[in-house]
Design brief:
Blueprint (H helix, E strand, L loop, with lengths): L2 H12 L6 E8 L6 E10 L2 E9 L8 H15 L9 E2 L12 E3 L2 E7 L4 E2 L7 H17 L18 H14 L9 H9 L1 H4 L1 H7 L6 E3 L8 E4 L5 E4 L6 E3 L1 H12 L17 H15 L5 H5 L1 H21 L12 H18 L1 H11 L1
Parallel strand pairs: 4-10
Antiparallel strand pairs: 1-2, 2-3, 3-6, 5-6, 7-9, 8-11, 9-10
Length: about 375
């Protein structure tokens, strides 16, 4: 057992009114950003209780206090609305000073209850998981649809400003610091062709055609805790990127992840495309939860959100490749280029099936 970690976990625990003492812990290794521990507390000889202790990565999240402020605000807003057996939104316990985070040795920690009998998925074929994920993220939108935006910080400015993302990419193409542009001329041509399309949601927002919503901004289905037996959604987790945005971004990023017929860095592009069955199941769940508050313009542009976010993600991978792979962690030479090409192929297939994507949304709206 790592003595330094157990000591730190005990120090964190001392800041909270938790029952019992730490008996054991296990590090959860499936996350990529924060350090997460499943901690078992012994209350007495017959009673034990489990919690999640998480150390926030303040290199990635430069202002963790603002991140935790946003999480607390949405928790306070949704708590009165959550019904028994409803899909919840993760919240963190207040410490003895009334804060939902604790600083120990200069590091930011937070604590929440462990959700029993829960499971997450990194890859699925079961349509029930897609429906549940769609419902959970739609419910997230519905619960927060009336929340005033001035209660939240924009923790990552211009996070989904795709016009600025495009500008940054073409600036990097001009600089070409590593001489890599020559090998990606075809990819650059794709972005040049679709630059206006990629900027369309930003322009519509600037014209006032959309309301700002509370957005999750990391709507992968592995950020939903589901019941291990029934696969019903229990809780939306990983709220570090919650801030004002567009519903189309959350829907779109979910489709980019859930609707791809291949993994995000697939090198055999013949395997990459849009799985319309997965798309339909996610959409069915999402629209079931979202009925009654989305504007007609929001519904009309949900499919566009999937295309835009996929192009945006591809542009970020390609920019990082041209810049020497400084942002996204790579596991092999050319990894970010593989990721970019995969996302480009997915966006191309979405455009090919765009009319069907819109029809499916209308079917459930």
């Amino acid at each position: 057992m790592d003595i330094s970690i157990i000591q730190t976990l005990k120090e964190v625990s001392d800041h909270y009114d938790l029952p019992g003492t730490i008996k054991a812990f296990t590090q959860c290794v499936n996350g990529h950003i924060n350090d997460t521990y499943r901690v078992l507390l012994r209350i007495d000889n017959n009673t034990e209780k489990e919690y999640i202790f998480q150390r926030i990565n303040d290199y990635v999240f430069k202002e963790p206090v603002k991140v935790m402020h946003n999480i607390k605000e949405i928790s306070l807003h949704t708590r009165p609305k959550i019904k028994a057996n409803d899909c919840d939104i993760i919240s963190f316990l207040d410490n003895k000073r009334g804060r939902n985070y604790t600083v120990v040795n200069g590091e930011y920690w937070r604590v929440c209850y462990y959700v029993k009998n829960s499971v997450t998925f990194d890859y699925v074929e079961d349509s029930r998981v897609l429906y549940s994920a769609g419902y959970a993220f739609g419910r997230f939108q519905q619960l927060l649809s009336d929340m005033p935006m001035d209660k939240l910080y924009e923790t990552i400015p211009d996070f989904h400003n795709t016009r600025k993302r495009m500008d940054s990419l073409f600036e990097m193409v001009t600089l070409d610091p590593l001489g890599r542009v020559q090998e990606v001329r075809e990819e650059i041509a794709f972005f040049d062709k679709h630059r206006e399309l990629a900027s369309s949601l930003v322009e519509l927002l600037e014209k006032g055609e959309f309301p700002l919503r509370v957005t999750h901004n990391d709507t992968k289905y592995n950020n939903i805790l589901m019941d291990r037996d029934t696969l019903t959604p229990l809780c939306v987790i990983d709220l570090d990127t919650v801030m004002p945005g567009l519903t189309a971004y959350d829907f779109g990023d979910a489709i980019r992840f859930a609707g791809n017929t291949a993994v995000e860095d697939e090198t055999d592009l013949s395997k990459v495309g849009l799985n319309l069955e997965h798309y339909e199941e996610f959409t069915r769940g999402f629209m079931t939860a979202c009925k009654g508050f989305l504007t007609p313009k929001e519904v009309e542009t949900l499919a566009l959100g999937a295309v835009v976010i996929t192009i945006e993600c591809a542009s970020r991978f390609l920019l990082d490749f041209l810049n020497g792979d400084k942002y996204f962690r790579i596991h092999r030479p050319g990894h970010n280029l593989d990721r970019a090409r995969c996302q480009i192929r997915l966006a191309q297939d979405m455009l090919k099936h765009y009319d069907n994507m819109c029809k499916i949304i209308q079917k459930f709206s």
